[in-house]
Amino acid sequence: MAISARKNDGVPWLLLTFTLPVRRASQRVQVWRKLQRHGAIPLGNSGYLLPNSSANREKFEWLATSIRKHTGDASVVNVQSIDNLSSPQLVARFADARAAEYQPLIRELHKLSAAPPHKRAAGRVSQLRARFREIAEIDFFASPLKKRVEELFLRIDQQPPAAGEAAKIKRRDYSSRVWVTRPRPGIDRSASAWLIRRFIDKKARFAFALEEKVPPKAVPFDMFRGGFGHRGEDCTFETLQKTFRIRDRRVAAIAEIIHDADLFDEKFGRKEGFGIDEVLNGWAKQGISDKDLLERGITLIEALYHSASRK
User: Fold this and answer.
1) Cβ atoms of 94 and 141 closer than 8 Å
2) How far apart are CA 84 and CA 117, in angstroms?
3) Long-range contacts: 19-22, Cβ < 8 Å, 24+?
4) Domains of the chain, with CATH numbers?
5) How much is the mean pLDDT over the chain?
6) Positive or negative torsion for Cα 198, 200, 202, 207
7) Distance CA 237, CA 163 (A)
8) Close Cβ partners of 251 (under 8 Å, ≥ 6 residues apart)
9) Mean local confidence (pLDDT), 25-43
10) Number of H helices, E strands in the chain
11) Which of 83, 104, 142, 219 is surrounded by the fewest CB atoms within 10 Å?
12) Residue 95: is its pLDDT beyond 50?
């Protein structure tokens, strides 16, 4: 472990090391709870780690002062590097810790989104928002699950579609249309575009727009307002599949795969989609255009279609 004694030398990590007398069990629990709230991760028997920032240093310094008041020993140390853990490995540990906190939130939000507004417990959405803010504050490395939570909150805020909407759909009204979705398509939008082109509108053209700039005659999909999107416990792919009454066993299998990868609720126990999602995320980080990213995603789903099967 490479350690620096100076406070402002640009090192990436802060380490809090401490000991408390055995008789101070209650104080030890208090310290542990504060470390959890601060987002620190344990580093074996060495102590607890945070990214180096003035705010995190202040948190550790106050905690160290509190420990010393209870006749313990505490030090806040700048750490340049750790012999057996690379920086990406440390970042991954923080990411795993935040994911473990976001996932229960995501599951709860899925349940709420499936319930009519009048059947939701009073104040529950506000409670979940408060919890989300707590997690986001210590999400030092921008977990991708943060965006999923934000999208779920936005969907909960939207008015649910009218009952019987699916029964009014006529497929001929959706022929040779422009279908529009948000930029940087992920697995649900890519799979939905594949479903549209293969089973709904073989001459479909795809465009990308922000919520407030959707072309008037375009058909929105996986947008937060209007069109075909998440409904109840269904992802956009499932909404399209059910609305257009697509009865194909391999499409049904893909629906399960996309649901689990997009909604992250393990409803069907399908893992195949996570690899596809990672590939799409990797391409997105390479600066590939939205159009090319969507076409590549469609190609991946077409290949999945030829190998997919029901469990």
Assistant:
1) yes
2) 50
3) 19/72, 19/73, 19/74, 20/67, 20/70, 20/71, 20/72, 21/70, 21/71, 21/72
4) 2-84 (3.30.70.240), 88-157 (no CATH), 166-307 (no CATH)
5) 88
6) negative
7) 19
8) 195, 199, 241, 305
9) 92
10) 10, 8
11) 83
12) yes
pLDDT per position as a tens digit, 130-166 = 899 999 999 999 998 999 999 888 877 764 444 444 4
71 vs 1, residue with greater confidence: 71
For 63-105, the DSSP string reads HHHHHHHTT-EEEEEEEEEBTTB-HHHHHHHHHHHHHHHHHHH
> Encoding tokens for residue 38?
């601060």
Is the predicted pLDDT of residue 283 greater than 50, yes or no? yes
Q: What single letter denotes the amino acid at residue 83?
A: D
Determine which helix (DSSP H) or strand (DSSP E) holds 189, and give its type and residue range.
helix 187-195
Element (H, E) at 207: strand 205-208
DSSP 47: E
Per the CB < 8 A criterion, the answer to whether 207 and 179 are in contact is yes
Structure tokens at 127: 């409670």
pLDDT of residue 166: 46
